[in-house]
Design brief:
This protein is mainly beta. The protein has one domain. Helices cover 5% and strands 25% of the residues. Strands 1-2-3-4 form a 4-stranded antiparallel beta sheet, with no helix packed on it. The protein has a two-stranded antiparallel sheet with strand order 5-8. It starts with 6 loop residues before the first helix and ends in a 13-residue tail after the last strand.
């Protein structure tokens, strides 16, 4: 609840997923980017980070459970959500194999398998 501010905002202010996700058959993970809040332009009415909105969220496709998330824009007030489908890459990072997930809002080395 601390990331939403109050019960009413948590009930009615959620973000939706409006882009296709990406699927990695090796890790059985999907990742997508939830949009900002429905009440985007009322920042005073929604304190906190508004968790899972404007985020990359990875879900285990076999269990349906969230594997990890990375919030790119906590408490977004400027519509800075990840509007691009995540691009999955097999790459080496610091000498170790990784599976980075890249989007327009979060060009980082977040691993699809571990976050």
């Amino acid at each position: 609840m601390e990331t939403w501010g109050d019960v009413d905002t948590a009930k009615h202010g959620g973000g939706n997923v409006w882009i296709p996700g990406a699927y990695d058959p090796e890790t059985h993970s999907t990742s997508s980017g939830p949009a900002p809040l429905a009440c985007l332009y009322n920042p005073p009415g929604r304190n906190g980070d508004n968790l899972y909105t404007c985020s990359i969220v990875a879900v285990n496709a076999d269990t349906g459970k969230m594997a990890w998330y990375y919030q790119t824009s906590p408490h977004d007030t400027h519509d800075s959500d990840s509007t691009e489908t995540p691009i999955l890459v097999d790459a080496d990072f610091n000498g170790k194999p990784r599976k980075p997930s890249f989007t327009r809002a979060a060009m980082d080395t977040t691993s699809l398998s571990t976050g």
